[in-house]
Amino acid sequence: MGARVIGLDIGSTAVKGVLFDGQVRRYELAPSGWQPATVAAAVRTALQPAEAGEGGVRVVATGYGRAAVTGAALALTEITCHARGAVYLDPEVRTVLDIGGQDCKAIAIDGDGAVLDFLMNDRCAAGTGSFLQGVCARLGVDVGDIDALAGSAPPVALNSTCAVFAESEMIGLLATGATRGAVAAGALRAVAERAAGLVGRLRHRAPIMLTGGLAGSRALRERLGVLTGEEYRCAADSHFCGAIGAALLGLERAPGSVTQ
Amino acid sequence: MKMPEGFAGFDDARRAGFVAVAAIKETGRRVVGTYCVFAPTELILAAGALPVSLCAMSGETIPAAEAVLPRNLCPLIKSSYGFAITDKCPYFYYADLIVAETTCDGKKKMYEYLGEVKPLHLLRLPYGTDAVAVAAWRAELVLLKERLEREFAVTITEGDIRAAIRQRNAERAALLALCAVNTVRPAPLTGLALHKVLYGAGFRFDKPALIAELAQLAATLQAESAAAPGDAKQKRILVTGVPLGGATEKVIRLIEEAGGSVVVYENCTGLKEIIEPVAETGDPLTALAEKYLRTACSCMSPNRNRIELLTRLIDEYAVDGVIDVVLQACHTYAVESGRIRRAVTKLQRPYLCVETDFSPADTEQLKNRIAAFMEMR
């Protein structure tokens, strides 16, 4: 049996974990809730192979909650881990766009998954997952079902640049007869515009892999493609991109080294 | 962070200076407050006055400033004004005159309000380095000279100016020699220690003693580094952009906590002002005008000197990566960061631009960006 590592991506919305030995052997996903450290520990335990013995396999942590993981062999930023995971999932990608719960990152990478440059928006909810989560909650739909709801409805224009004000704007639009589908489409477009702006400011190459909780939205990928004229892809395991990248880096780097 | 021996005189120099400046005023000597490295301190010295840099690095006084100034303004400008109107800066309190320059838009307009609080002399800065600009800046220096003579009832002779130039040049050379200890690998001075010395030096008013101490410190550091070399694998970082200090020390700390070693500062609290001496021959006012106009501030246009300086420093200090710090609402440094990015990328070094203000609220975000940058190969 080859060397195995657990990669943990402790995000603001969800904790993602994989047991990895060159391929993903196990997946775990749990909502972060109010105590991501506890959830991370539970995910780690769930991933430990029974036959690994006392110490279990090495753990590499990423995500905003990475410092809370006790005994991690390595703790790396999600930028570094998403970059590495993305080329594993799709060796052709040269940019990663990660629309996370509370931030949005555009990462330019090389063929080995090394970070060349990056830009982050982590000061403003507009263009992040939390905005869409708020919208979905209002519309009574799961984030995963937003594509189905939006369908082919023409998107309403949301004028507010602020995610909080955009929600009020949405309520107003629904009250004056806009369909839930049109509003959902409008929200997707707003997120796409923000994200496209971020990617546009980064010197990068296509194709671009979308990761994060919204990676599965075809409508979002299509809108991004239209706005930027570039090819947006996702992989089946996009959601686990950070965890996989963390695990890969754990296998590739010497045990015991902390950040480099 | 515990400062090593020899730094004692710099760590708290700003505070210790409060008492020193009070004593200086007792002797009848005048005090002139300045905000910026464009201030021709030589003329102030030639007038027999003490030039002192005014407080501008704390977020504490910003709420008071925001009663008058817009929120969407550089925190350094708001902080300066806030210190002045709340009487929280002892140097401002003791100042007989303020010397200010029309560097950026924000400062230019803030000084209009500041002039209502204390007598203020405004120098109108031309944004170039050609002969026309030098002539214009020289003419402004003449106006300042005349103002100082009138305000303080003194006569400033050419000899006075030459003496002041020599004194300031000696100070610049001593500070630069200290910065230069960091050209070796690994750098003997941490970024934080280097910053504290450079920042503190401005508040040490006994200049001969300061110069001697700096020389001693440089010699000790060189000897120590030869004897016990530290970690040569640390990534050597050049920090550029806006002046740092007080609230923005957080950036320096975060870089070093992430495993970086800040070896040199291309900014106004670093070597920007000290790297070039004033010529000691020829007409002194022209020499002053020429040197000061070559300051690589983003308010100058074009600011080629900054690219030249960065290129030189990246080589001299064996820099591995560049971090460009821009304050919120600072248009000139923000717009210029694109040019800096291009120049640094051309030199094949990684580049990171961070925007921040004086609040500690963005510590986690800064930490994350800096960590990701340090993880880059």
Helix content of chain B: 40-55%
Instruction: Point out poorly predicted stretches of chain B.
Output: none
Helix content of chain A: 25-40%
**Gap from first CA to last CA of chain B:** 28 Å
* Helical run tally of chain A: 8
Largest sheet of chain B: 4 strands, parallel
Supply Rg of chain B: 20 Å
- Globally, the shape of chain B reads globular
Structural class of chain A: alpha/beta
Question: Can you list the strand order of the major beta sheet of chain A?
Answer: 3-2-1-4-5
Q: Structural class, from secondary structure content of chain B?
A: alpha/beta
> How far from one another are the termini of chain A?
27 Å
Order of helices and strands of chain A: EEEHEEHEEEHHHHEHEH
Task: Determine the number of helices of chain B (DSSP H or I, runs of at least 4 residues).
Answer: 16
What proportion strand of chain B?
Answer: 5-15%
Backbone CA Rg of chain A: 19 Å
DSSP strand content of chain A: 15-25%
Number of beta strands of chain A: 10
Provide the spatial order of strands within the biggest beta sheet of chain B: 2-1-3-4
Q: Provide the succession of SSEs of chain B.
A: HHEHEHHHEHEHHHHEHEHHEHEH
Poorly predicted regions of chain A: 256-260
What's the arrangement of secondary structure elements?
The complex is a heterodimer of chains A (about 260) and B (about 375).
Chain A: E1 5-10, E2 14-20, E3 24-31, H1 36-47, E4 58-62, E5 74-75, H2 78-89, E6 95-99, E7 104-109, E8 115-121, H3 129-139, H4 146-150, H5 163-175, H6 180-200, E9 208-211, H7 218-228, E10 232-233, H8 241-252
Parallel strand pairs in A: 1-4, 4-5, 6-9, 9-10
Antiparallel strand pairs in A: 1-2, 2-3, 6-7, 7-8
Helix pairs in contact in A: 2-8, 3-5, 3-6, 6-7
Chain B: H1 8-11, H2 13-26, E1 31-34, H3 41-46, E2 50-53, H4 62-65, H5 75-86, H6 90-94, E3 97-101, H7 105-114, E4 120-123, H8 131-152, H9 158-180, H10 191-201, H11 207-227, E5 235-241, H12 249-257, E6 260-266, H13 284-293, H14 304-316, E7 321-327, H15 331-346, E8 351-356, H16 363-375
